[in-house]
Amino acid sequence: QVHLVESGGGLVQGGGSLRLSCVAFGRTLSNRAMGWFRQPPGKEREFVAAISWNGGSTAYTDSVKGRFTISRDNTKNTVYLQMNNLKPEDTAVYYCASDPKSSFLLRSGVDYYDSWGQGTQVTVSS
C-alpha cells in the first residue's frame, strides 16, 4: 500500500496562486496514473485533474482548465498541482490519489482511485 502526503495548501486572496505537492511513500508511483480531487465544505469529493504515468497525458475538470496545471516528477515520487488565478469557489480540502489499475487511462471517478492522502486545506478569500 502506498502512503500519500499532500502539502502546500493555505489561505490566499482571490487571483493568487498556490502549488500543491503530493509525495508517495512505501512504493513507487511511476507506473500509475494519479489524480487530484477536492471536497468543498458541505459537498462531495470531486475530480480536479489527472495525469498519466509519464506525464504525457493530462485531464482537467472544466472549472479549472487554463488555471490549474498537474505535473509529476517520478524521480521524486511526487505529483504537483499548480493553481493560478484562484477563486473563492476553489476553497476546499484537496486530496491526491493513485489509480491502481491504470497507467495511461485518465479517469475522473472517485471510486477508481485508492491510497488517498490526508488532504490539504485551500482557502481563497474574496
Would you spell out the secondary-structure blueprint of this structure?
Layout: E1 3-7, E2 10-13, E3 18-25, E4 33-39, E5 46-51, E6 58-60, E7 68-73, E8 78-83, E9 92-99, E10 120-125
Parallel strand pairs: 2-10
Antiparallel strand pairs: 1-3, 3-8, 4-5, 4-9, 5-6, 7-8, 9-10
How would you characterize this protein structure?
The protein is mostly beta strands and about 130 residues long. About 0% of the residues lie in helices and about 45% in strands. It contains no helices and 10 strands. The chain has strands at about 5, 10-15, 20-25, 35-40, 45-50, 60, 70-75, 80-85, 90-100, 120-125. The strands form 2 sheets. It has a 6-stranded mixed beta sheet with strand order 2-10-9-4-5-6, with no helix packed on it. A 4-stranded antiparallel beta sheet has the order 1-3-8-7, with no helix packed on it. The protein is globular. The mean pLDDT is about 95.
